[in-house]
Design goal:
Blueprint (H helix, E strand, L loop, with lengths): L29 H4 L27 H24 L2 H5 L7 H21 L21 H25 L3 H25 L16 H7 L25 E4 L11 E7 L11 E6 L2 E6 L6 E3 L8 E7 L10 E9 L10
Antiparallel strand pairs: 1-2, 2-5, 3-4, 3-6, 6-7
Helix pairs in contact: 2-4, 2-5, 4-6, 5-6, 5-7
């Protein structure tokens, strides 16, 4: 017997530090079939949750605080889409009649991630609250769907990267399986929305410095809007300059020439060599960076999945400190997205 969607989210007033409070991921249908416009638990309360213990903080608390802050960005993107659109918004553009339902279902999944990350932070540490966010899609459903692909691929990358940093083996495993959920969200979009192969080749893209990816997501946060109690995001942060492809001056395709811009601008030393290090799949390929033209040649990768590019002062970017800017996110699948990001 099929389960009927749940339209109304009942207010929940129990102690949010209690893992038995409210819907439980894997046990409650809230994180699968709730289809109301109002945000589901725990996103019905945007405030930080203060610590209530003087015990030693958990060894992975900072990691999960970073993830909680990142997940607020991801969840709030989908929540904004659920509120801005309806089924007709996508059907009228020729997309499948299930599109809005899938977006709502992914919103529910992401609310479940909020619950998982919140529960993973010990009582000795604060659970970050939500900020205000600006994704720039307004009421444009096409822009929303393009940005959805970007956000899901970035989510996969930082989750798999943070799995390397987790101290507890159970947390490493949890982050891997959460990354696979983001992969499923990506597969749905590639197949149903963009009508291309849902496969990224033999491997998704691995990147070792997850906090550098998290740093790029701060561009969606409205400055000054985060709760003052929130810890810095991400922590620690190198505060690297953003690195973006200048789309109208670049051929954003494997083998093409990419011109980059930096915010703030990187100051290049005369006589010093610089490199762009591209991560694609499990490969890491270094090419020279032309400081005059601020350009580099994109390696001849396959036209699948995600590529991350960073500016580095050492071939291969062997350490976090060798990365000077980035990463820049490059999407080659579908090819139409390569001219949007």
């Amino acid at each position: 017997m099929a389960l009927l969607p749940v339209t109304i989210a009942a207010p929940i007033t129990c102690d949010r530090r209690n893992p038995s409070c409210g819907p439980i991921p894997g046990q409650s249908h809230t994180y699968n079939i709730y289809n109301g416009k109002a945000p589901p638990f725990p996103a019905d309360n945007l405030a930080p949750i203060p610590p209530n213990s003087n015990a030693t903080i958990g060894v992975d608390d900072v990691l999960f605080q970073n993830l909680m802050s990142a997940e607020w960005i991801v969840f709030s993107f989908y929540q904004a889409g659920v509120e801005a659109f309806n089924s007709s918004s996508f059907i009228d553009l020729g997309y499948p009649n299930t599109t809005y339902d899938r977006i709502t279902e992914i919103r529910d999944n992401e609310a479940g991630h909020l619950r998982i990350f919140s529960n993973s932070i010990s009582n000795a540490s604060l659970v970050p609250g939500a900020c205000k966010y600006d994704y720039g899609f307004g009421t444009n459903a096409v822009q929303f769907l393009a940005l959805q692909q970007l956000i899901e691929l970035v989510s996969m990358s930082f989750l798999s990267g943070l799995a390397r940093d987790a101290q507890l083996e159970a947390n490493k495993g949890a982050l891997v399986v959460l990354a696979t959920v983001e992969a499923r969200h990506t597969v749905w979009s590639l197949q149903d929305i963009f009508a291309v192969s849902p496969f990224a080749g033999p491997s998704d893209t691995a990147y070792p410095y997850a906090n550098q990816i998290l740093n790029t997501t701060r561009q969606f946060i409205v400055p000054g809007s985060c709760p003052p109690e929130n810890p810095p995001y991400p922590s620690p942060s190198q505060n690297l300059p953003l690195m973006q492809t200048v789309l109208n001056s670049s051929k954003v395709t494997p083998g093409g020439n990419a011109v980059f811009e930096f915010q703030p601008q990187v100051n290049f030393e005369d006589g010093k060599d610089y490199y762009v290090v591209f991560s694609h799949g499990v490969e890491n390929i270094t090419v020279p960076f032309d400081t005059e033209a601020q350009s580099a040649t994109i390696p001849d990768f396959d036209h699948r999945g995600l590529t991350l590019a960073v500016l580095a002062d050492t071939p291969g970017a062997p350490t976090e400190q060798s990365v000077l800017a980035g990463p820049d996110v490059m999407l080659f699948q579908p090819s139409s997205l390569s001219q949007l990001f």
